[in-house]
């Protein structure tokens, strides 16, 4: 059984000093073309206890950041994130909504790719309670499966239906309070592309049995809506949502490919190496140098200190980009160089180099700028 938090196999390699990222798009998701796709979700709720059911539509959607083109047989990463949603305050028949609980969001591993891993992106969710979000590879039954065709964002796979830990009248998993606007986290998905000339089409979970049907536990979005009446009587509504404009309509844009990634054999796969000093003094300007191979005919390099950009991007000339940057704080700074790619050349990111920055000594420079290089 696979761990509920699936880690990208390339993440560790990309973080080691002296490594060069060998993957198209690896670490460059943030700069990839972003697709913002709002759509309507049509939802059906079954009440416990009692026979009452009701139908409603909600604003939903996703954003996807992915490279437009990748080389064949190449590892790359794309990012998918559900758009914000709002839990209602008022429920059925004068009841009040306490929360949504056992929340899950499912999407497919793209057909024509080999899955490497998926990872929750820290700091990309808001107003979530209960169990912290995890990403799990699942089969059609909702159980963790290393050969499963779907990925699930949930609270440790605690769901209202379609899984090994389900219930229709108790809380658990991811919870959001009534009246709250929330956002589920983004997920970085790493896959390997297939043959040249093919297309990769990330999709929500709509293609396996009943997942694209109205009112199914296999729907991409499901949860329990807990409601209370005066006197504290609790009601639970198992709610299943599919991407359609009404219960009788067909799948809308949310049930179609979210973006298209072309596999092109003419695309040159780049590698980026960074050179920087090993030590510096606060206030000193240090030279950063990135070398991109094979030499591209253009593009930019963004130097970064951890996750923060160091100044503006620098143009690549004859395969090299250089910049002088001032180190303003004491401590170890992990510096990387991200090449943005250009026509015919993939993006790539270097391994990190560490610059140890110290205070300026009285009467002296306090540090050495002897350069060291990192690459493969």
Write up what this structure looks like.
This protein folds into two domains: 32-263, Immunoglobulin-like, CATH 2.60.40.2270; 271-374, Immunoglobulins (Immunoglobulin-like, Sandwich), CATH 2.60.40.10. The model is unreliable at 1-31 and 365-376 (pLDDT under 50). 2% of the residues lie in helices and 45% in strands. Strands 1, 2, 4, 6, 7, 8, 9, 10, 13, 15, 17 and 18 form a twelve-stranded antiparallel beta sheet that branches. Strand 17 and strand 18 form a beta hairpin. It is built from one helix and 30 strands. The protein is an all-beta fold and 376 residues long.
- Number of folding domains? 2
Category by helix and strand content = mainly beta
Can you tell me the CATH architecture of the largest domain? Sandwich
- Number of distinct beta strands: 30
Query: What composes the largest sheet?
Result: 12 strands, antiparallel
Q: Between the first and last Cα atoms, what is the distance in angstroms?
A: 35 Å
Overall morphology: globular
As a percent range, the share of strand residues is over 45%
Low-confidence stretches are 1-31, 365-376
- How would you state the average pLDDT, rounded? 87
The CATH topology of the largest domain turns out to be Immunoglobulin-like
Task: Round the Cα radius of gyration to an integer and report it.
Answer: 24 Å
